[in-house]
Amino acid sequence: MRNTDSFNYASYHTLDEIYNWMDVLVSEQSNLVSKINIGSTFENRPIYVLKFSTGGTKRPAIWIDTGIHSREWVTQASGIWMAKKIATDYGKDAFITSILNEMDIFIEIVTNPDGFHFTHTKNRMWRKTRSINSGSSCVGVDPNRNWDAGFGGAGASSNPCSETYRGPRANSESEVKSIVDFVKSHGNIKAFISIHSYSQMLLYPYGYTKTPAPNQQELHSLARKAIDALSSLYGTSYRYGSIINTIYQASGGTIDWTYNQGIKYSYTFELRDTGRYGFILPANQIIPTAQETWLAITTIMEHTYNNPY
Amino acid sequence: QKIFVGDQVLRIVTKDMEQVTLLKDLEELENLELDFWKGPTHPDFPTDVHVPFASLQAVKVFLESNNIQYSIMIEDLQSVVEEEKIQIIRSRSIEQ
Predict the structure, then answer these.
(1) Torsion angle, alpha carbons of B86, B90, B91, B92, to 10
(2) Cα A179 to Cα A263: distance, rounded to the nearest angstrom
(3) Is B40 exposed, middle or buried (0-12, 13-18, 19+ CB in 10 A)?
(4) Min distance B66 CA to chain A CA atoms (Å)
(5) CB contact set of A215 (below 8 Å; sequence gap of 6+)
(6) Range from A72-86, A250-264, B80-94 carrying the lowest mean pLDDT
(7) How far is B88 from chain A (nearest CA, A)?
(8) Number of residue pairs across A and B with CB atoms under 8 Å?
(9) CB of A124 within 8 Å of any CB in chain B?
(10) Where does the pLDDT of residue A1 fall: very low under 50, low under 70, confident under 90, or very high at 90 and above?
(11) Which terminus in chain A has less CB density within 10 A, N or C?
């Protein structure tokens, strides 16, 4: 790859290729993009976050992470496309330029690097981390059940062989703990968007309790607006609502924790479901998926920008 | 490397909460080694389950005997994975 324009955004890529792409993006636009190492995985791979910033210290920020469940490849691929979109649009698109003149954007493209590498080399269907569970032959923890929000409650498994194994304790997974430490030390993240696939949903807290989030009304109306924007491109229909009311009870989830940390605009996406391929969504759908999702994300960003708290 | 030859992914549509509960019982049967891509939650939502070849007959008998509707979303998981691999190799060679 000579530059990020010659990268094929309509294809799936390995971890090495994505990490190399990040380095090229940073070198091309070092005035805007930097790469932060927020920790290491169980298998000692670096965990990287791209920071889009025009200056300042700990400005109000928007966080986006993609692919905490490693087999959801269209998610990481959409994260790459979005990062490139931000880099391209800065200075050209009025909205992105105005956001970045006042806020920072963080994107963690490969949130579960060990699992992602495993899906490319050993088991395409791997979802969890790759940590060893003492006393069990089964490997890995579901990182979206490992957060300190209703940890150990209903909607997560205590069985290490389950796909939704919550882990021995909250934050036991370095992939989770690295984000927790980063979010706490930053202290000024205003929107947190965690992206998964595939169910076509936009969800907000809570997942571990039926108690409505104090900002439920605002979160619901913003979700509707975001989904209207998303659907306007290709007519993709989404459901939206709180996790527990829309899909199922799930404890130890990402955005329940971020919301409880005071990040009001905490959302999680479930990208396209064609009813034919599941996680193995053909690569020709990457760009349409990313494009429509981007419209919803910019809606959330715009609301965050216009409603400081 | 794990292979999925003959494995299928079924899309199951339930008509009531009773059938959802039956699917939850199915989820508990660890010996079938099912991987629920979308777990059973509500009759409004489909359930997608990756069924290893060795468990296909047992699962289909269970669904049919309980009058639970399903369709085969992925006929042979390995062939879809292979197709994906070919696409990746092809696009890599085009880039080079």
Answers:
(1) 100
(2) 14
(3) buried
(4) 23
(5) A264
(6) B80-94
(7) 6
(8) 64
(9) yes
(10) confident
(11) C
